[in-house]
Design goal:
single chain, eight-stranded parallel beta barrel, 14% strand
Length: 580
Amino acid sequence: MLVLKGVAASPGVAIGPAMLLPDESFVVSRQYVEPAEIKNEIRKLNTAMQKTLAELDACEQKVLAELGSEYANLMSTHKLILQDPSLTGGITRKIQEEHLSAHAAILLTLQELAASFEKIEDPFFKERRNDIFDVAKRLMKNLEGEKDGFLASVKKPSLLVAHNLYPSDTINLQANQVMGFCTDAGGKTSHTALLAQSLNLPAVVALGTASKDVRAGDTLIIDGENGLLVINPDKYTLANYRKIQREIKKTEALLKTINHLPVVTQDGRPLKLFVNYDPRTDNKENKRLITDGLGLLRTEFLFMNTSVPPTEEEQYQTYLAVAKRFDMRPVIIRLADLGADKMPDFPVDELDKDANPFMGCRGIRLFLKNPELLHTQLRAIIRTACEVPAQVKIMIPMISSVEEVHHVREAFNQALAEFEAEGKKPVNKIALGGMIEVPAAAIALDGMIGDLDFVSIGTNDLIQYLIAVDRVNQEVAHMYDPCHPAVVRTLNLILQTAHKRGKQVSICGELASDAKMLPILLGLHVDGLSVTPRMYLRVKNNIRNSNFEHCLDLAQAALLMGSSADIRNLIEQNDKNEDS
C-alpha cells in the first residue's frame, strides 16, 4: 500500500480500478512541405479550425444546460483563443513563409504563446496557458482526423490518473464512467478542479508522481476530503474507506432534511450562516437553500472578458437582480478586487507595471488610483439600495490602513450625496465594512474599526500573507496551514478588537467550510460564516452538532499552543472523542 498526499480539489471518496491517461505532451518537430503543398496545408488548417469551432459551440451549449453559464463562459474563452489573430495569423505565416506543415506550425505557434505565459508565476496566467493547450489538443485531433478519444474506450467504472487534465477532458468524465480522478499537477482553484466540484467527482491534484506510481488496474482510493491517493490499499484501509463512503451518502441524505432548521449549536448558541453567491452559477439546488443572506458577492467577473470597464447601468442591473433574490436579508457586495489572479481585460496602467501582482496594486489600492472605477461601482450599489428592501452592504477589499478606509468613506459619501440631491435615498442604511486579509490590517484594526460598520475576514489571503506561502505553488503549498499558531492568534486578535467596539465579524474563504477548524472558530466567538452553496448544508449540520461550551475550551487551548502540530493534534483528538 502506498499513500500520496496532494491537494483536495473536490470532496468525496471514490474507490475503483485505475485507468491511466496516456501522456499527451506535444512533441515539436519542424516538418516541412513543398511549396506546391502550402495551399493544401492551409486548407487542412482551416477545416480543422472550423471543426474545432463547431465542437466548442456544441460543448458550450451542453455545459450551459448542465453546469451553468460560468463554465459555458470557459468554452467561450476557448473559442476566443481559437479565433485570436495572434494564433491563426502566426500559424498561417509559418506555413506560408517557413513552409512548415500545418501540424508543425500549430505546435510551434502554441509553444511560443505558452512560453510567454510560462515566464509569469501568477496562477491566473498559468491557467490561461492550460487553456491554450486545451484548444491545441482539440485542434490537433481534428487536424489528424481522430474521432474518438481515449476516454471513449473506457468500458467500466474507473478512476482516472493523469499528469494533468484539461477542462475539455473533465467535462466528459461522468459520461465516460469515470468516478473520480487525480493528477500530478494542478491546483485547487484551477478550471479542472472547479469543474470536478460541479460534477460531484472526488478529485485530488498536485500529487507529483501519481501517474508514475500507479499502474493500470491498480485498486485506488481517491480521498477528496483529505487530499489523499491510496494505491493498492490493504483490507483494513479498504474496509474503512467503504464505511466512510456509506457515511458520506447518509450525510448527504440527512443534509436535505435540515434546510429549514435554525443555525444553532446543540447548547443554543446561534450563528449567522451566509452564502458566497455567484449569479453566473445559480441553479435550482442553490435557490432552495434557506440562508441568512449573501455574505460575499464577488464583482470582479463584471470587469473581465470586456474591452472596457462595466458601466453604472450594467453593474446596477446585476446588483439589482441579486438583491431581489435575497429579499430583505443582508447582501454584502465587495468592491472589485482586481489585480493578482483577477486581471481585467481592459488596459490598466498600474497592473502592467506589477512585477509581484499579489502584493502590488490590487483591490482598493487600484480603485484609489482609478477613482472613476470606484465612483461608478459605488453609484451602482447605492442605486440598487434605493430600489430594494435588502440590507445592502459594501465591503472594501485589501485594506491595510485607516487612510484607505477614510478615502473610500469620502467617496461613498460623495456618491450618496449625489443621489440625495436627486431626492433618492437607500431603503436601508448602507453599511461600509472591511475585508481583513492583510496582516497589517489585523494588527492595526483598533485604529480603523471606528470607521468600519462590520468586518469580514478573508482567510485565503490572510493565511497566505501571514505564513508567506503561495498556496498554488507546489513547492510550498504544503506549508499553507490554517492550524499555524499565528493564524489562530490573528483570528482571535481581529475578533477581540472588533467585539470590543460592538462590531460583528464573519469569516469567508475556505476556512469557513473547514469542518476540523469549525470548533475553534466557534470558540473564538465568530459571529457568522459565509460559504459556497455546495458546502452550506454541510457547514450547517456541523454547527448544529457542535457544543459551544466545549468549543470555547478548545479555542482557549489552541491559543496557548506553540506549534501547528500541537493544534492539529488537539483537533484530531477532539474528532476522536466526538466519534467515540
